[in-house]
Amino acid sequence: MSITKSEILMNRDKQFPEDYTQEVSDNIDKLLILLNKFRDLYGIPMSVSSGWRPDTINKKIGGAKKSNHMKGLACDFVDKDGKLAEFALEMDKQGKLKELGLWLENPEKTKGWVHLDIKDRGDRKSNIFNP
């Protein structure tokens, strides 16, 4: 089962059409390709907890001022048991996050969810970052 654009949009493209730009749409399309490659490797359905966030929503929930969610570059997934985070950490150790072009927010900072994004942070040994 693939992650869909509508899951990432969370109907916010209809609620905030002025914020849903072509750039955001294109970014989400790129993100989806990589997230679905990751999901295929994981082999278990993943549930979106926070996808695209227009500025209004991002401020309301206390998101980072320059959140990649606002640009369509990031997605969070439910991870109550920590298994998705464990898998993502192992993927990073194997260099697979780097191969995919995905970045993982340090799971120590995201208990209960996993944040993946496609913001390029340069060539590093690990594709794990701290907020």
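That was protein one. Protein two is written in the same sequence-then-structure order:
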Amino acid sequence: MPFNIDLHTHSFFSGDGVSSPEELIDTARRKGLHGFALTDHNTCEGIDYMLRKGLMRPDGLPVDGFLAIPGVEVSTSDGHLLCIGVTLPNMKGYPAREVCDAIHERGGLAIPPHPYDWFRSCIRESVLKTLPVDAVEVFNAANTFPFFNRKAYDYAEATGLPMIAGSDTHHESSIGTAYTILETDELTLASVLRQIVRKNRLVQNPLTPRDKVRKTWNNWMRLRWRHRIKMKKEWG
């Protein structure tokens, strides 16, 4: 059965995200997604939040037919690296190879996001070639230029690495703009992780100009005061 999963999303637990996990889940459901990976920047606090609120299960099963997947986007010393399927301690600034090893030790997948987009802290190809990554994000809806996605696709095709697509949403309105269609028998964390490293269909739509402006504004201005107010109300 095909399951639509957005493998790159951010909540207000990221410094540049504005939406709560509940808002992401509600909008994702309305858009026909079956799940998403929460990959906030350098923190798994959002994962703790979802577990505490009953939005995610520690055994990797869906909640009310929707699968929230643990993850994190690590700002390694070599560029950004997605950890999918497990949580990590704060490894910001560690070499990408050490982060890959930590991900694999915990049973997760290491996936470079937006490679070749040198405006957005990508891992350069010279380093990428040395890393034991499990797949490549070949379509990032927020990439600066379409050319960067094409380069990522060419790299994955040349190396035989599996491919994923993600929205890189920082606001619930753009979740599911791009996503990966995973053909699995069941909607569980274990089955999703097994299928990611196989051949999958991708839905590839770029962010709208409005969403790109919103993302850039959030990233530049770092509306942390707003995040703190929201998290205090929601997280307690």
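Residues 2-235 form a domain with the TIM Barrel fold (CATH 3.20.20.140). Keep this in mind for the problem set.
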